[in-house]
Amino acid sequence: MVGPLGLPQQPTDKDFISCLRSGIVLCNAINKIQPGAVPKVVANQSIGTAWDIQPLPAYQYFENIRNFLDAVEELKLPSFQASDLERDTLDVGSAAKIVDCILALKTFHECQQSYGDNGPLKHIKSPLAPQSAARIRPIISSGSVNSRRLDMSNADKKEPVENKEQCDQYAVDSLVQVLSTLMFDSKENIDRSLIDLWNEGKTDRVKLFSKIMSNCLEEEQVLKLYSKSVMNIHLILQCSSVPLGNGDCYHWYQLDAQEKELRELKALVSETRSEFIDLQNQMQNDLTELGARALELSVAASGYHQAIKENRHLYNVLQELRGNIRVYCRIRPIISSSEKSCIEYIGNDGSLMVFDAYKPQNTHKTFQFNKVFGPTTTQGEVYKETQALIRSVMDGYNVCIFAYGQTGAGKTYTMCGPSSRSSEEMGINHMALNDLFQISCTREDIKYEIHVQMVEIYNEQLSRLLINCNGTLEIRNCSGNGGLSIPNARMQIVQSTSDVLNLMNWGDKNRAFGSTAMNHRSSRSHSVLTVHVHGKDISGNTIRSCLHLVDLAGSERVDKSEAMGDRLKEAQHINKSLSCLGDVIMALAQKNSHIPYRNSKLTQLLQNSLGGHAKMLMFAHVSPEADSYGETISTLKFAQRASTVELGTAHQNKESNEVRELKDQIDNLKKALTIKEGERVVQQHKIRESEPTLERSNQMMDRTPTRPRRLSIENGSAPKTERAASIDDRKIVKSPISRLKYTTENNMASRPRRLSIETGCVSKSGTATNIDDRKPVESEIGCSHMVLLDGSEANANMNEDNFISGAKFFQQSLPNFSAHTESRLPSIENTSRQQPLDQTRKLDEVTPLRKNTVNKYDTRSSIKGSIRKGSHIRKSLQSIGRLINGSEKRNNPCPIEAPSSKLPKITSNDVKSPTSADVRSRRRQSLTNIETLGSSVSRRSSLGGKSVDSSSKNLQIARTPPSAQTTKRWV
Ligand SMILES: Nc1ncnc2c1ncn2[C@@H]1O[C@H](COP(=O)(O)OP(=O)(O)OP(=O)(O)O)[C@@H](O)[C@H]1O
């Protein structure tokens, strides 16, 4: 294709290569086959015929060769390397590559000729092909030998070594050849003279190679490379040291190398193993040390937790002793995850920090409660913290739990659970009743009855939830009607959890719910679930308590809740009643004398819990969303204020058997007394008949009814109507003795006739007599004293201080004042508290004289005030003392003996010797702080008055009402 090349008939490889070295022939040929494949061919004019004379310098023809090779590669034909044309001493295979390439080019041309551009291309392998196989193949060694190794397989096969020298020489030559080839291929930084020397082949090539290397690289790198090369050479030499023949050399070499590698690997493994054992030991030690430290820390931590727990317990005990309202705060989870939270921190100790997420600077506020439940707290965890309180209902304590907070903050969720309840999400109401049932089952010695009431306050109207009925309900004072604050609401007995569940579902159905912008199922009423527990143990002791579970409706800003029409009206009622609750809490916290319970139905209903001796727990619910920051702050402030309210220690509503026996005894005494009254009337008739001068007064006495009103003081639970009757009686009918005084002796009218002391005598046979008969006290046995103010009205006006002081006086002054008399005090105390105010006022109008001593105590608030004032107590003690003095005076020196037929018979066995005057006066002195003047001085004078004998004027101011016999004498 390119014309004659000037080659001899049988050219050597060298001739052939030299002919092609300039690249001109090749470029022209490829341009013929693929026109324009090499756009510019560098031609040397002198080369023409003298190609075999002088090889062109590499840099001159390199351009042609490179262009040719690029064109070949573009045609995807087998290629060779430019360096293949550079050598005079051709390696085995290098010429083969060039031949392959030219043959492929020829075949390509032939295909082009026959089939056009898309014809099949069949490569023809050069006859030298076996020799052209790649002789250098990298062997990636493992372990410490990182050098490249030579794959000698082909060489070994083709040219088996014959002896050791030959093998050595061959190995070194091969290595040097390979390295130098690589060096020349890169053609960088190689001194031209060195290349020439190399080409001449006269110089020792190993040395020459070292020189080239040192020229090319830094010394250090050379050393490294050199040492690697030497190592390879050494390996090759090792290979050559074994008996040779038939290619065994290579295998031995491989075997040896592998053995060495194996040895190195083994050393490495043992080294690694020992290192591993060391590490293991070290780790073991570290772990032991860590364990010891962790133990230390855990001991410290458990101590810390114990201390925190104890602190909390003590704090709770303190709060309980002070009777504080317990306050738990619960934070609802954020409903929409994109919302910002205003909760900064929730402490384990009940602290809570909130901030305004829209103005984070300087808006952080901290609050402290008994406990704070975070958004992830489960219903069970909340109940666990409440359980102890709820369980105390079974021990006779009244408990009230109420949920307070903004609308949608989770009150109903806490109290009743979510609308679709599962067993884990049950609210406190359900769990509490469940628990109460469980306790009642475990306490076998007490028989419990559990009743449930469920009502709601909707728009300031109280209505039942357990029946569909529109009738209105009334709130009453608990203590007057067997513990029921809403007596006409339906009471449902419950015996199992399923009863409770049914009941609550029923109640929920009847409750008022509505949808607002803030909560799609918003409670529009306050719901109150009251659980009444009545227990009786085998010895007859009873407990009676109640648990109020209140789910308040949520406070709401009507602009936010978008309430209209009925919803707006509901919201106004809800907000008003909650603000009334706030007023009550505020008044309680400030210990005001007036607590505005009556301002709303809600506060009226909670009055017995807030104002009584119940245990109170408030759940303050907050929404964590930043939008609700304002409402959250006001809820938290309300809760904080509530936690400062001190209600006083809770009372246990337990009535022992003994108390009941005493009550029975009082009943018996009442009966006996009534009989005795009848006898007395008969007696008075007889007296009237025998003494006509007394006719008029006896007529008046006849009009006096039997004296049930005297008994009212003993029985706090006497029906109101009975008490009212006795009061009416009092207005119309005066004590016969008083009347006698009015009618017979004017100068005695000024006496404080309304104070008297009744002394009932209990004979051994158990019958009682009334001292109104004015029997001598010396003959009394087993005295039971009843202190009456103004005779029968005493129960309406009796001040608790007076009574208790008087009773104590009796206990000290009279050895037979039995313990059971004192145990009766609480019921009497209650009675005095329960008297309606208007009754007291009426009495005051009728009995102005009493005002000096009693009127200041006639309201409940003044009773409380008097408790605080020691001087009042002292005064009452003194007045009781004077009364006693009077009674003694009356009893002691009375010279007139009643006709034996008119007196109850008292046997000598029943009579106890009277307390001596000295002893009495000493006791009196100890109680009244008034010095006794001596046994010769009368008791009246010992209380600050003068001797009975000193003047008649003193008699006029004597405060002892005369006995019946004395009256008779005066008349
Ligand atoms: N702790 C909680 N975990 C999961 N969801 C809660 C929690 N508390 C409240 N929710 C959900 O928030 C929503 C509002 O709760 P809920 O109705 O109990 O609020 P509320 O305070 O009773 O509102 P309202 O006063 O308007 O009746 C309900 O969908 C309830 O399921």
UniProtKB/TrEMBL annotation:
Ranges of compositional bias, category Basic and acidic residues: 684-694
Bias (Low complexity): 933-953
Record family assignment: Belongs to the TRAFAC class myosin-kinesin ATPase superfamily. Kinesin family. KIN-14 subfamily.
Coiled coil: 255-282, 652-679
Keyword Ligase in record: no
Name the UniProt record assigns to this protein: Kinesin-4 isoform X2
Region (Disordered): 684-722, 883-971
Domain Calponin-homology (CH), first and last residues per copy: 1-110
Signal peptide coordinates: none
GO molecular function: ATP binding; microtubule binding; microtubule motor activity
Binding site for ATP: 405-412
GO annotations of cellular component type: microtubule
